[in-house]
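hi! just following up on the protien thing from before. the input was this:
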Amino acid sequence: MKKLTLICGTKNYNGNNVELFESYTSDAKKETYDFVKTFNNEEQSYTLLITDALTLYSFNNCILRSISKDNDELKDIPILDSNLVEIYDIGENGELINIKSELGTVGKNKFNELMAEVMDDYYDVLTYLEIKK
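and the predicted 3d structure came back as:
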């Protein structure tokens, strides 16, 4: 049975047979959705290193689509069967930590923690915001 393994980490991760899947462009969502469509039409397994949150959450949208009610508004989001997906974060010692939630979607991960830090700074700055006219 084919499977898709997503590993959240940095480019310096050196796992076996891991392909780097990254996009820092506005096309990240499209590239991810195109990959999912290809994956759905093949019997090949993949292990992908995901280095950015936009790509990870684009995959997550596809997984969510597989457990959502069918709706015409969602037709552009390809379905990614959560039973075919494994999702890991990389621990401090390089070990893989399962971050797949009970729903089968992306659970708590490094990207969430980094975003929380950025948002904390954002709210700190907002405290002192004065709009000059």
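The mean pLDDT is 87.
Helices lie at 28-40, 53-66, 110-127.
cheers
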